[in-house]
Every structure is written in C-alpha cells, then in structure tokens.
Write a structure and sequence with these properties.
The chain starts with a helix and ends in an 18-residue tail after the last helix. The protein is about 65% helix and about 0% strand. With about 180 residues, the protein is an all-alpha fold. The protein is built from 6 helices and no strands. The radius of gyration is 18 Å and the shape is globular. Its main location: membrane. It is a multi-pass membrane protein.
C-alpha cells in the first residue's frame, strides 16, 4: 500500500472534520499571514515541500515489518489524534479572536505539530530517506511560516496574544500547576 493512502486519510480528517465543525473555519485555516523577506522564501519552500511530500507518497510503499513499524504507526496515529483535537478547538476560537483553549493550552501551534507527527510517521513507515528529508525541509520551512503567523497575531490581538505567548510555548508546553499562595507568618 502506498503512503498516499495514509495521507489521504489525513487530508479527509484535516478538511472534512473542519468543514463539519465550522465551514467558515476552513477559510481561516487556509489564510497565511503576510510574509516579508526570507519568510516569503520559507513560504514557497513550505508549499513545494508539501507538494513533494504528496507526490512522493505515491511511490513510497508502507513496509509493515521491522523496528520502524511501531514508532511510525504511533507517530502517525498521534498526529491524526492531535490534528482532530486541534481542528475541534480551532473551530471554536475564544472571544478574543484566537484559539487558546483545549490543546492550544499546550501548544500555540498544535496543527503544525500534528502535521509533522503524521508526516514523520509516514516517513518511518515507508523507510524512505528521501521522504524523511522532505518532511524535515517541510518542518524547517513551517517554523518560518509560524514565526510570521505569530507576528501577525501580536499585531492583531496585541497584549492578549503576548500574554498567551508567555504562558504557552510555540510547540509544546507542559501544564503548569498553580502554586497555592503561601501563608504569611
């Protein structure tokens, strides 16, 4: 079976679930922030690496044996799960206009993280070094796209987004326990 079928399932989830939850969210998810300088180059690398990933997926079979099977399957399935949760929360932005609840309490960019997990899982399942290289190129360029999006969010949402940035890391934050106030002696 070619990796394409795994990516097809990913695409059905990515676009189908969001369309079911909130069709207007499809438009929000498709918009990219304004890009400047090297960000424009990163945007095109992002787009081309995404196209290359899907094109290569037709020629890379899933190999259901050996050590990469379990980690690859776990990464892919974790990516699908995180993608579903991200889409659910993205479809219901907070009153301030950006997503900060659900999985967005753990990552400012859970959708991009879910893409990386799915694509990395596919690369492991196919044992393709070329596909792995394209996935890494995708992720490096996605980082630059994320930086542009975060700049745009600071401009649009101001101090609320800056406070959110201080509280939640770009890729992964562990929930912080609130320490109870210490009694004064």
């Amino acid at each position: 079976m070619p990796v394409f079928f795994l990516l097809l399932l990913f695409l059905l989830l990515r676009f189908g679930l969001l369309a079911q939850l909130d069709p207007s969210a499809l438009g929000r998810a498709a918009r990219f922030a304004p890009m400047y300088g090297l960000e424009r180059l990163a945007y095109w690398v992002y787009q081309l690496s995404t196209a290359a990933l899907f094109l290569l997926s037709f020629f890379c079979p899933v190999r259901a044996e050996g050590w990469p099977l379990i980690p690859g399957a776990l990464l892919y399935l974790s990516g699908l799960g995180l993608c579903a949760l991200s889409l659910r929360d993205f479809a219901r932005p907070a009153p301030q206009g950006f997503c900060s609840g659900g999985v967005y309490r753990l990552s400012r960019n859970p959708m991009y993280l879910s893409y990386f997990l799915c694509f990395l899982g596919c690369a492991l399942l196919s044992r393709s070094l070329i596909l792995l290289g394209v996935v890494l190129l995708f992720q490096v360029s996605a980082h630059w796209v994320i930086l542009a999006e975060e700049r745009w969010c600071r401009e649009q949402f101001g101090d609320a987004y800056r406070a959110y940035q201080k509280e939640v890391r770009r890729y992964l934050s562990l929930p912080r326990r609130k320490t109870p106030p210490q009694p004064k002696c």
